[in-house]
Amino acid sequence: MNVLELQHLKKHYATHKAVDDISFTIPKGSIFGLLGPNGAGKTTLLRMITGIFYPDDGEIIFDGKKFDPHKDIHHIGYMPEERGLYKKMKVGEQVMYLAQLKGLGKQDAQTKIDHWFAKFEIASWVNKKVEELSKGMQQKVQFISTIMHQPKLLILDEPFSGLDPINSQLIQDEIFEMARNGTTIIFSTHRMEQVEEICDHIVLVNKGRKVLDGSVKEIKQNFKQHLFRIALD
Ligand code: ATP
């Protein structure tokens, strides 16, 4: 079954076509790589999938039905590239606030906070202000905030930027575990080596258009050739 179907999506900024007729489908439980160079249209695409932007044209089908951002947002976890934490809030309060925004009750949220903070070894940060944490530390907090409500679809935009190898591995292991348990994951990046290591399927975009769509194995065989084409484009 497909969790997400994008049908002929389009989005432009003034006259610039940031996403220009992109379609693809994402099966349940897959780790799906959205790959493309800077400016390819990845973030614009993700913002439509998360309901931040309405498409100018095209359709999004989520879990078999027409996507309704107001309802479906509780089933989506989105970790944007630019971190969205409130710097002056304490870490524990921040994660509680975001969990409640996603529909968790206070007790349930607290149980989950205790679980994740222990698992990620950050329990001692609860009373620190977000601004006291390094970029990588904030990233761990943001990741926990994004997965706490157990989304059906988890969208990660460059989740490893600024993370050291140990913490990258921690998050990578969690991504694999979630996919094994049926969560569908979109992993957006411009780094092929990360996609190769983590994803089972890739869509390659460039200048708002889909260039390739296939399994990692298929795309790896022709990747250099396609990069060369993108460079000439
Ligand atoms: P990156 O990997 O650098 O984050 P991206 O693939 O996420 O890039 P987008 O941020 O979606 O790409 O941008 C796609 C295109 O749309 C780019 O040419 C960008 O300059 C343009 N663009 C993005 N946001 C805006 C905006 N708010 N107004 C005008 N143009 C924009």
From TrEMBL:
Keyword ATP-binding: yes
Gene Ontology molecular function, alphabetical: ATP binding; ATP hydrolysis activity
Signal peptide residues on this chain, from the entry's feature table: none
Keywords: ATP-binding, Nodulation, Nucleotide-binding, Transport
Domain ABC transporter span(s) in chain numbering: 4-232
Homology family: Belongs to the ABC transporter superfamily.
Protein name, entry field: ABC transporter ATP-binding protein
Organism: Chitinophaga cymbidii
Higher taxonomy: Bacteria, Pseudomonadati, Bacteroidota, Chitinophagia, Chitinophagales
Portion held of the full protein: 1 to 233 of 303
